[in-house]
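User: Quick sanity check before I run a bigger batch. Here is a single chain. Can you write out its predicted 3D structure?
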Amino acid sequence: MAVPVRRRALLACAGLLALLLGGAARAEPAIAAAWQLKTPDGQLVRYPQDARGEPTVLLFWPSWCPYSRALQPYVQDIWRDYRDHGVHVWTINIKESGDPVRTMRERGLSFPLLVDGDALIDRYGIERTPWLVVIDGAQRIVYTRPASAPSPIDVARTVRETLNALLGERALPLPASYPPPYDLHLRDGAAQSSHLASAAAADAEWKPWAKRYLEGIGADERVAGLAPLGAIADGKAAIAAARDIWTQRYGAEAVARQAPYRAYRQGTRWLVAGAAAPGRLGSGYLLVVDSVDGVVIRVADGSAGAP
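Assistant: Done. Predicted structure follows.
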């Protein structure tokens, strides 16, 4: 007698769950560390308390990582589809040099965001970004995105299959197709992860370089045709101003590829650099702006050999 379609689906989920949770020949899944983090507006989220014994997806990401950007729309869809079916999705910002709230707004994302997650890097063994895990209701990590994931679509499909295995009879239908991923960062055949070493250059490299750069700018240098921006209070405001000006000049896609960004103030001048990764300082877009009135002193493209 033929096995009903629904029963076959449940048997498949049960089989996948058995593979995920392991057998005698497989080590026990790692236990997800507990944590407390805040949303950008200060609301406290606690794990595992707020998961209430239900499956959880965690995505660790910085705004500068293009591989995180490629995966985010699929995590957005997973959150949208599963949030009312007993699954929690939290994305945790780590190793940040920019503004994750602005980044999400620019990318049309609305999934739950938690900030200042660097304390979890060691506790979750994070070696690269994006770092994504699926956790069952018993706090066991049953899936971790591999370093050599074929594509964001493969990751999204596996996450959905894993969640369905955990949900059992509450499993959701899998999508018949997936939208194509953001892929500008893949056209050179690069790997599918950013190691955390790809974050912004450390102060020991950045500050001396920035100081030398600013010292090479004339006292009367200005950019014609750009109105003053107003007072620039801090580094985040300087980076935001730089991204706005660069976007007008070079386009949003090009600016997105400039991450990570760094800002440095000397006297009344802010310097903002794009592509500010270790060993790459000066190779990306640059902005120098007065901190008092926002007069734009220099806009340059370091990759083009501009001053």
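Confidence is low (pLDDT under 50) at residues 1-26, 184-191.

User: Great, the batch can go ahead then.
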